[in-house]
Amino acid sequence: MNQHLKSAIPEPPVSERQRRSTRAAEGLDRLAFTADDLFAMVDAGILKENDRVELVDGELVVMAAKGNRHELVKAALLEVLYQKKPPEIVLIPETTYRFSDSVVLEPDITLFWRSAGIANLAPSNTILIIEIADTSLRYDKKRKASIYAHYGIKEYWVVDAMTLTTQIFKEPSAEGYMKIEDIAAGDLLTPEAASSIAVRLADLDLR
Q1: What is the C-alpha end-to-end distance of the chain, expressed in Å?
Q2: Which residues contact 109 (CB under 8 A, 6 or more apart)?
Q3: Domain over 68-203 is classified CATH 3.90.1570.10
Q4: Which secondary-structure segment (H or E) carries 167?
Q5: pLDDT tens across the length of the chain (207 residues)
Q6: Half-sphere exposure of 136 (CA within 13 A, CB side)
Q7: Cα–Cα nearest to 74, from 183, 161, 174, 188
């Protein structure tokens, strides 16, 4: 849980944060956490820098453990993307992305325009977010896709670590992504805003 994006998005007034709560499965209200609460827990040592925790609608969500296949595919894909990306694009794995005071995620891979600067990372300058899924496939395609669409991420890929098929999400709206496409491992993947990058997952070196 790196913290260089603590102030990327303005916070709502304190009075608004204090009124927030979440509803537990048993029907009881719970006080919602904020992004500042999350970072404070890291500073206090309650959470460690490498703990896999995200903040989703004010609730702390423990992310699924990363399997060997997940890490192998991520490393191979990162290697290819680093080789192919132009200098005006920044590529960062597992950055702490603060979408709002109640949503902080750690996408597997984020591409954004260098001119924006990491401190100003926002949906408006984000080119692409990639999640690599093994045990989290349904969550990444449903819940995370809904979150990314809500905040206006223009393009989102979910890579199935086992089959290397990719589901591409485009045209975000309040109802979710309007365009969803499945791409086979042998077909080329090209970000809409960065046509110079073309990747064929079947060609990844997974040895």
Answers
A1: 29
A2: 74, 77, 78, 81, 91, 92, 93, 128, 129, 130, 131, 132
A3: yes
A4: strand 166-173
A5: 654 444 444 444 444 444 455 554 555 666 788 888 888 888 888 888 778 889 999 998 888 778 899 999 999 999 999 999 999 999 999 999 999 999 999 999 999 999 999 999 999 999 999 999 998 899 999 999 999 999 999 999 999 999 999 999 999 999 999 999 999 999 999 999 999 999 999 999 998
A6: 22
A7: 161
The DSSP-derived string for 35-92 is: HHHHHHHHHTTSS-TT--EEEETTEEEEPPPPPHHHHHHHHHHHHHHHHHS-TTEEEE
Within 13 Å of residue 97, how many CA atoms lie on the same side as its CB?
Answer: 27
Spatial CA neighbour of 200 closest among 170, 169, 159: 159
What are the extents of the domains in the chain? 14-62, 68-203
